[in-house]
Amino acid sequence: MSRKMLIDGETNRTNEEGIHYDFDLFVIGAGSGGVRAARFSANYGAKVGICELPFHPISSEVIGGVGGTCVIRGCVPKKILVYGAAFGGELELQASLIC
């Protein structure tokens, strides 16, 4: 249903009459926190469901991706860029030693 809503903007509820969902925990968003909560709960015997936007390799606000904002386009990519930038001085030093 969520995929249909993303494509059409509305759903046809007539085919979903009588369907019953029973979860102990329903997680909205499969980011690092959502997946961890779901796994922890499932390990203790809870019946868990996760809702996430359809997968796409480039995550955005309207195109999903398991991993969430932090992993895909937030904290982790930022840390990689900051860590890589720390090598600039060392590369300049190495270049001056070679010539």
CATH architecture: 3-Layer(bba) Sandwich
Uncertain runs are 1-8
Percent helix range: 40-55%
End-to-end CA span: 63 Å
Q: What's the β-strand tally? A: 2
Question: What is the C-alpha radius of gyration, as a whole number of Å?
Answer: 21 Å
Count of helix runs: 5
Largest sheet, order of strands side by side?
A: 1-2
**What composes the largest sheet?**
2 strands, parallel
Estimate the mean pLDDT confidence: 74
Give the tally of structural domains.
1
InterPro entries: FAD/NAD-bd_sf, FAD/NAD-binding_dom, GSHR/TRXR-like, Pyr_OxRdtase_I_AS
Domain FAD/NAD(P)-binding: 23-87
Keywords: Disulfide bond, FAD, Flavoprotein, Oxidoreductase, Redox-active center
Family: Belongs to the class-I pyridine nucleotide-disulfide oxidoreductase family.
Structure summary:
The chain has helices at 2-8, 32-43, 68-73, 75-85, 88-98, and strands at residues 25-28, 48-51. With 99 residues, it is mostly helical.
Question: What does it look like?
Answer:
There is one protein chain. Helix content is 47%, strand content 8%. The protein has helices at 2-8, 32-43, 68-73, 75-85, 88-98, and strands spanning 25-28, 48-51. It has a two-stranded parallel ribbon. The chain has 99 residues and is mostly helical. The longest helix is centred in the middle third of the chain and has 12 residues, at 32-43. Mean pLDDT is 74; it is low at 1-8. 5% of the residues are buried.
Question: What distinguishing features does this structure have?
Answer:
about 100 residues; mainly alpha; FAD/NAD(P)-binding domain; two-stranded parallel ribbon; 2 strands; elongated; disordered N terminus
